[in-house]
Structure formats: C-alpha cells, structure tokens
Amino acid sequence: MKNLTLPPAGQFLRDDVIRGGMDLMFFAHTRHLAHADRHLAAMGLGRAHHRVLYFVARKPNLAVGELLAILGVTKQSLGRVLKDLTDKGLLSSAPGDRDRRQRLLSLTGEGSALEHDLFDNLKQNMAQAYAQSGGAAVAGYWTVTQNLMGDDARALFASLVSFE
Question: What SMART domains has UniProt attached to this entry (predicted)?
C-alpha cells in the first residue's frame, strides 16, 4: 500500500505536520479497534471493558491499584467496568496473598476466550501493518510512541513488555 501523503523532509515540527500526525493516530486507532468495538457492543460492552480485558490478560492477578495506574482512570469509573465484567462472568477477583485488602484481577475462561478473539484480530492488523512498513518504520513507531507517553507511562509499559 502506498502512503497517501508524506510530510516535507526535515519539516516534521511544523504545525500542519504535527496535526497530520495527530490525525494519523486518530484514524489508525479508531479503525484498528473497529472490529473489537462491534464485537463488544453486541455484548453491551465498550472500549473501557476492552482495556480491562486486555491488561488483565497481559498480567494475570493484576492488582486493582496497578490497573488504575495503567488506565489513568478514577476508581469510581473503573469500579463500574469491573462490575459489568464480573456480572457477565468474564472477570474474577481474589484477595491478595500478603494484603487481604488488595484485589487481584483475573480473567475467567470465558473472559480469556473473549480477549483472545479480540486480540487475534488486532494482532493480525498490527502484523500486517508491521510487515508492510518494515523494521525501520516499526522501530520509529516504537520510538515516537514511547516519547509521546512520558516517563510515568513508559515505566508502566516497561513492566508489561518483555521479549524472549
């Protein structure tokens, strides 16, 4: 696939080029998640539910406090999402081993199957985009997005990612 437009060489800090980059992020994000959005909507769920499923799948027995930090949402808004997922039999919680007040989140078998189905489509989309773009572009994408997220989120990201 040929890129529709490219910014002028060496002029990436111009307002119109920065806006173009923001436009790219918006269109890529919404189109990338469209299949998952439709699948979840049919179940009465949305993107907030998907984020929880995704991160709990990434890190089983994830503490609610850590999930709050990752998502950057309020305890109240997360509570509603956790209740929905628990009521639908997709998520379970258990007290922490050392601190019984801590709540550790895990996906149920049904929740794991749903997250896997959603991820499989996203994985195919990312793999296709990576393959069409090439290694240098993928490395650039990782660099740009890590610099967009800032130090606090970069530390959370590092706690999730490990390559073997």
Answer: HTH_MARR
**Number of C-beta neighbours around residue 42 at 10 A:** 8
CATH of the domain at 44: 1.10.10.10
Q: How far apart are CA 132 and CA 126, in angstroms?
A: 10
* Burial track 106-123 (b if 16+ CB lie within 10 A, e otherwise): bbeeebbebbeebbeeee
Asked if residue 8 belongs to a domain, the reply is: no
The backbone region for 150, taken as left when phi is positive above 0, alpha when psi lies in -120 to 50, beta otherwise, is left
Q: Per the domain annotation, does 102 fall within a domain?
A: yes
pLDDT digits (tens, 9 = 90+) for 113-163: 999 999 999 999 999 999 999 999 999 999 999 999 989 999 999 989 988
